[in-house]
């Protein structure tokens, strides 16, 4: 009952599915890491080969060791994860926050626990005592400072500050000294955070980060008024150190504190950014962007190896994370972060050759099935920003057309070199007809399109010239396998299905009795390869209405709903893609993205689902957002899943006989109490546990003060896996503890009720 994810040379396990699935992580190794005030790279201060990378767009964490990704943590977030903090006492534990909830994560044991929900939703700060590693300080609810003496297991309030704690730091040379940024001013404590003194008298703003000189407890460096400042008298007076109107963050060389590095850049407001370095304490600065790639170098965050401080990591816009081993003199790309793709091409002649369209790089290519990626030569200016669609000429293999935001690109040498055709600005979709030579269909989108509307285009000379067919937005073209004149188009305009009977010259609406819902992508429609009169379409949910899966058996003339069992696995069904099996009738995959606010009862995490009987029974193959699906030409085929982390690949040998509930018939070998799900919850959650032998077992719930609230189980239970639903309708919002006792085994965990 395991999913194996083969991450390059490493294996991690996620319990999801009743069969063993070998996933291989392919990359590509790009992604938007960090942002202004968001530090997206964290190096373990003791074991510096372990690095956390926070991809800012989805709430995911990449764990890398020795330069390779070894684990993926999905915190099911709808917002940027602002930061993470390693436990000094445990090399596999870190703390992080998203959607106002503070987590403790152990990535070796795959344990994620909630330790607090901020009220209001204010960014929490963490610092650890470098001399007593089990001591951690954590700000909560904006103004409260908590302390743990046991590595984060138990916490107690030590002080409450007069305003929101915006930054927190501890002196390495005297760990009784703490600094805090509060209301744009520097505060200092000399008794480990119990009492505080306001040091800075003048008004300020933008005090986001403080670092203390490791050799002098009175010298501090800070982001203040959006620039880099220094104070040599514990914050009484502040003076500019790098005044450039927009420093994202900075790092200090812990051995030679005259060396300081800072980054400036923003993907929207300041795409032309810089990496700065000083070797004389800030008197002189130099720019060390050097060989960082891209028309616009956009450094978002920077991290320094505390043991080997000539080693630096910088995130560069959407192009991923780059590493320097010589103090910033030169940079090379790392493999410590991944990202989803906009489109994918799999070479039918060489299964290891893949071309991906992405944001940032534009186009990336691999010839070794994802071990290494490189950017082809692109003769044009802005095409590295968005490439949405890749299509190969079926009559001239190795020739491609690509739709990008600014025009159509062409390659005639298997995607190694690309040139700008200067046509169809705003090309969202471009697709060769599989059986009519030189026929290409395309869609351009407003406001980039050459007309003032979304437009459908047609070319009969291999894209040399284009004819405007009609106003409309077709997200994907789907071709009848037997009749070349029949083409189906899928539009985001309220789930509209369009059909052409004359090879794209004219189109008629086949939405008919479909509900008034939109589609998510051009992959939300699929023709049955054994009977093309059978069509499947997935619609996305609306505010109060779930999405759904529908089927037509007459070429779109009428539709029926076929998701009654699928909805049991994902209640909202935000369908993004459908992939049919060309070898077995009735067998197809459905991909879904996440929907609604995380950590609420209405949240759906999405996933990949498989049916082998035309939608009667389903199995969840992957738990997490899926954006698109692809297949290669092997037998058995490989399925490529475009996730928030990047591309996952697995061999398609799965079977389905029922609706999976993630249970296993194997007798467990140890006692274990699992995290309740969902958590937080309102009003119900499921508590699960396992026992290797039969015994009398009790499961009780307590409030945060230790008072017993309810006894859920008090009986003899057989060996195996057990679960029970807990209804908290009569309880107030807050943190509760559930405790399992089975023989001599005792274990407890926290859960949170939110109303």
Characterization of the model:
Residues 677-753 form the Secretion system C-terminal sorting domain. This is Secretion system C-terminal sorting domain-containing protein. This protein is mainly β and 755 residues long. Among the domains are: 36-116, Thrombin, subunit H (Beta Barrel); 119-243, 6 Propeller (Neuraminidase); 672-753, Immunoglobulin-like. The strands form 16 sheets. The protein has a 6-stranded mixed beta sheet with strand order 2-1-3-58-57-56, with no helix packed on it. It has a 5-stranded mixed beta sheet with strand order 35-39-38-37-36, with no helix packed on it. A 4-stranded antiparallel beta sheet has the order 4-5-6-7, with no helix packed on it. Strand 49 (535-539) and strand 50 (548-552) form a beta hairpin. The protein is globular.
Summarize the structure.
Helices cover 0% and strands 44% of the residues. It is mainly beta and 755 residues long.
List descriptors.
Thrombin, subunit H, Neuraminidase, Secre_tail, mainly beta, Xyloglucanase_GH74, 755 residues
**Total DSSP helices:** 0
Average of pLDDT: 87
Radius of gyration, whole Å: 28 Å
The CATH superfamily title of the domain at 119-243: TolB, C-terminal domain
Approximate helicity band: under 10%
CATH topology label of the domain at 119-243: Neuraminidase
* Largest pleated sheet: 6 strands, mixed
**Beta-strand proportion:** 35-45%
The CATH architecture assignment of the domain at 119-243 turns out to be 6 Propeller
The level 1 CATH classification of the domain at 119-243 is Mainly Beta
Q: What spatial form do the alpha-carbon principal axes imply?
A: globular
N- to C-terminal separation?
Answer: 34 Å
- Strand arrangement in the largest pleated sheet: 2-1-3-58-57-56
As residue ranges, the low-confidence spans are 1-19, 661-665
| Total E-strand runs | 65
Secondary structural class: mainly beta
